[in-house]
Amino acid sequence: MADEEPVDQKKYLEESCKPKCVKPLLEYEACVKRIKDDDSGHKHCTGQYFDYWSCIDKCVAPKLFSKLK
């Protein structure tokens, strides 16, 4: 058992937190849809993307740190 590779709990916790972050995800998807025809490359959805992952990180952090050794 000691020879087994450790499992990354963060990935599983992220999946469990995604349903709690639906609003930022919808905002990101709406932005992507709005700018999909932009050929100039000036428009982006970076803010919405980071808002979504920030929501997930805030949900994951308390659960993850309790599992760390």
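Second entry:
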Amino acid sequence: MDPSDVTYLNAFDESNERDIPDFLSPATVPIPNNLKHVNYSSGSLRMDVPKLKLSGNKLETIDFSNNILYALNGPIYNVKNVKVLNVSTNFCSNISKFFFSSDFKNLEHLNFHNNLLGIVLPDDNEGKILNNLESLIELVLSKNRIPNLPENIFKSQRNLQKLDLSENMFTDITFRVSHMTHLKELDLRGNRITIISDPFTSQFDSLATKHNFSVDLNKNLLECNCISIKFIEWMTTTNVRLKNIKKYKCMLWNRTIVALHSPKETYNLLRKHCASYENLELALVLGVLLFIILIMGSLMYRYRWKLRYLYYIVKVKYSSLHSETEEEYSYMYGAFVSYADEDRIFVHNTLLQKLEVENGIQLCLHKRNFLPGNDIATNITSAIHNSRRTLVIMSHNFLKSYWCMFEYNMARMESIYERRNENVVFLMFYEQMSPRDLPLNVLEMIQSKSYIEYPNDEYGDTVFWDQLVNALT
């Protein structure tokens, strides 16, 4: 069998002509030497187009429209003189990336109208299918059910003058056209475009500065609302010729269809509507922000002592990050004494003598042990953290003092979050106090923890100091 008589169907799936196996020689199709035009339109031809090589020829026009060439596999060789190729209405759903060989370098007019290329073209991200067609002047891809096209699908078509993408399924423009410096007409009729975004209207304007450039957006689903207002404004200012603009229609924000033959009037209408809409939107955003701030403020107030404790404890943490266990930790003080300045005589004369001098419990007093130069809050947190217990001298003066209550709440946080709920805080009531005089956080503690009252008799005084020493040691 002569290899030139063999036809290979669906034999190729490679992305480059160099990948085609050498043993698969193309079928040679004899062509009369001086033949310039081939018309096989409506010939009931039903096939995949395989790898083919035409004999020496002068073909300029090839028309295979109205057949059933459902796949163009190729490649096709020896078509260097072909300028016009018509394969419209063929139910074609696949074109291999090497069908258009480098021999198609002089092709100027390519017609793929009414096929099914929406299946294959959206996946050609690198523009390989049309890569060799650098001389194209007109490309017709209308009625192909194309939903979108990659940005670089037309990267080689720098000489293109007319691009017909009408009657497809585009909702927006996603492919690049700015490099097509000779493009004069872009037909987007009968798609589903609602808005053309700024990057692509800018490309259109760039082409309009070079020559007369037109875009046809008739029979699309254009929208006229606050989202598309910039696009409508562009229509009023652009130098791009909007072909068939008298037939344009768009849908308003209230779903009403109106004529768009005067974009200026529509833009003014939108500007008035969107101004009030923007005010409403601004009020809504501010309301949401205020609500979030209130929620965050409430949470921060509720957990204010925990947050403050965490902040200050980080400042006084050792570099070892508490590698020792609780049992191994060596405290600097036996107790931190939290007291009001008005009660300092009792603390410095009596308490210090009984606990530190007579019983050897090392006390931390803010008047004596706080490091100069550190801020008060850090000194307090450090003292509580480095003391085995916190002794609170509760009095009316204590409740009135901001820093005393700060010490009390920091000690509570230390007990809960650092000492695993160990009884760290010990309350000593220096004065007789009614429950109604106490804040809620103090009442909660005296209901759940033991406390002691300072006595007024000699026998009670002895028992008091013994109990206090036992509690602290």
